[in-house]
Amino acid sequence: MIRITSFAVAAAVLALASSAVPQEQPLGVVTEALTYASPEFGSAGLVEFPLMISRAQLRFFRPDTTDPNYYSRVFAQAVLYDTTGAAVDSNSTYFSSRVATLKESQVANQMLFNKLAMMVPPGNYSARITVIDAVSKRSFEALIQDIKVPTPDPLSLAIGGPTLAYRISRAEPGAADVNNRMVKNGLYVLNAPMGLFAHTDTVAYLYAELYGLRRGSDSADYFQSSVTVSDSAGSFSRDLGWKSGVKPGSSAAVTQAINIRDWPAGLYRVELAVVDRADQDTARASLPLRIVGPVPVSTGVEGGADPYDSLTLADKVNLVTYLLTPPEKATLQKLADAGKLTFLDQYWREHDTDPTTARIENRDEMIRRFRYANQHFSRFLTANTGWATDMGRIYMKYGPWDQRQDVPTPRVGNPFVIWYYYGVKEGQTFVFEDPLGNHDYKLVHSNAKGEKYDEAWAAKLREEMLDIR
After folding, report:
1. Looking at the structure, do residues 238 and 165 belong to the same domain, yes or no?
2. Where is the signal peptide (predicted)?
């Protein structure tokens, strides 16, 4: 069973709402983990993270005056961790949406779909999913736990990647409107992560892959599948019956349309059963189907306790590590605990960028950066040391990047990541390398004053016509 701990659960549900999400709320994204243990992959397994986001949440911009259209820009990343909490692999992507007018961007019920995927050895994993609106800087975070990648077994019938979808159609080769990331076995599959559907949806589609099919006689060279649906209370049941499919080989895809028109909002279970008629081998899979009723959208900004009060003394000290001058750091280190608290309170009062408000907004922003750095840049998932890494230091000083380029498998050299900040002075760039291949990225080049400068990297970036001098 896969558990999802979301830092924006309410926002994920709002992604299905009929109206736009206010800009003050976290970004609403729905995601899950799907695993495939096809013997065709050899000893590895495939993990996929389908993503769904409501377009009305995104901020659109016009890149230049010669193009009349408006565009959104979304960054998505998945980082996979082993049972010790160490990062073992990652994948990321940018994707965009285009509209003719800003009014069009706010049309309700327009969803964007994408997917991240990784090939990994069999085992147990967890994953952190990050999605950022690169224009507004609003973000989504989710931790997916208990991801089990089984060992492929060509001698046993198995079901891989069972999922529900909003749409399944034949993928036309070369079609301009088809995202190839969403194509499975020649089918265009728009996943419904976590089985979430709105009360206005009329059809849910089931997709799954079969492995370990045996070749039999002409009369037994087929498989059969059945789908049943029931609610959590046991008062509702639908049996869609059995259907047969001819084996194209040792693997096959199964699809099934489920009519959910006028079904009450609530939680249902979809049960898939498959029988290989060559040897009567069977396999089963179960997945949730959640129908969400109308969701009221709050337009106000809720107040709350000051997040600074929940920090430990050590975290409060770490929060200002990159803000204090050397003399201030020396003074702070000499104080007892009570003195440190007084010093820090005085520091923030003196550096409040808007003393007319009750909150210290710049301190709130620093706390957000501190927590983000710990969540994303810590070497181990359970540690809170990301703020002390090179990536954490730059993130805390400069905040979210304007653009990010990930190159996990360069033709030459180590994996590297480039962060671009277009609004800082004349534009600043930071290059991080992963010299040991363990996702511990080190800053190797920047054009920012006081940071490490590497002429070889500067020349390389100039040759690629990137924004650096």
Report:
1. yes
2. 1-22
